[in-house]
Design a protein that fits this description.
The protein is an alpha/beta fold. 54% of the residues lie in helices and 12% in strands. The protein contains nine helices and five strands.
Length: 228
């Protein structure tokens, strides 16, 4: 428990300090290039788009070590016809996610993995706003392509803002998943949060080994969907 509290304290610091507009622009451009590079391949295979924060982006690591890339290797090893797009962005909130989602959906997406909300909680953003923004993203996805399957990644935050806020924040994800009939990863960082051996020196962002565990948490939910 003490390790988990330390993890969350460090996480709060990094969220506020990690990313400015210049960094965002560079990463957005990087994601756009990935999307464009996948265009020809996606004509013959389904696209799985991971839309999230620095956890998805693989901050501090080679992009090939981020959990979406680990998932991609798994799909290739099983000869499953999917291409992975990593649209993770450090410091992303649910509000900023709404602002950049439309251009990501210019191509058909078979499976959309939504990993947003943790930065909202760490900044004390009203829970109703976080819930509303996540719902808006789901609504835009279904409006653009009703056939897209959605996976929502659950997240937890430290009790700094009080037990009630913490508990209600945690409940946002399973409640939205149930309301919208979408798949849920209960806690993306399960087995990694608070373990110094699985996190980088900042105590927050997973190491390559930690990212493999995140990939495993995602794969438990994703596997039945891609094997159909």
């Amino acid at each position: 428990m003490r390790k988990l509290q330390l993890f969350y304290a460090l996480l709060g610091f990094i969220v506020f300090a990690s990313c400015g507009e210049t960094t965002k622009k560079e990463e957005i451009n990087g994601v756009e290039e990935v999307v464009q590079d996948q265009d020809q391949k996606s004509d013959e295979s389904g696209v799985i788009l991971f839309f999230g924060t620095s956890l998805t982006a693989g901050m501090g690591l080679d992009p090939n070590d981020a959990y979406p890339a680990v998932i991609h290797k798994k799909l290739d090893s099983l000869d499953l016809p999917y291409q992975v797009v990593n649209a993770g962005l450090s410091g992303e909130t649910t509000a900023s996610g709404i602002n950049r989602i439309d251009w990501l959906l210019n191509q058909e997406v078979k499976i959309f993995v939504l990993e947003l909300g943790a930065n909202d909680g760490l900044r004390g953003i009203p829970l109703d706003e976080t819930r509303k923004n996540l719902q808006a993203i789901v609504d835009r996805l279904r409006s653009k392509n009703p056939e897209t399957k959605i996976i929502l990644a659950g997240m937890q935050i430290p009790p700094n803002l009080g037990q009630e806020y913490t508990s209600e924040f945690r409940n946002i994800f399973p409640e939205l998943a149930k309301k919208n009939n979408i798949r849920l990863i209960p806690f993306l960082l399960e087995g990694v949060a608070g373990n110094p051996e699985l996190n980088q020196q900042d105590g927050i962002h997973p190491t390559a080994k930690g990212q493999k565990i995140l990939a495993g948490n995602v794969w438990e939910v994703l596997e039945p969907m891609v094997r159909k």
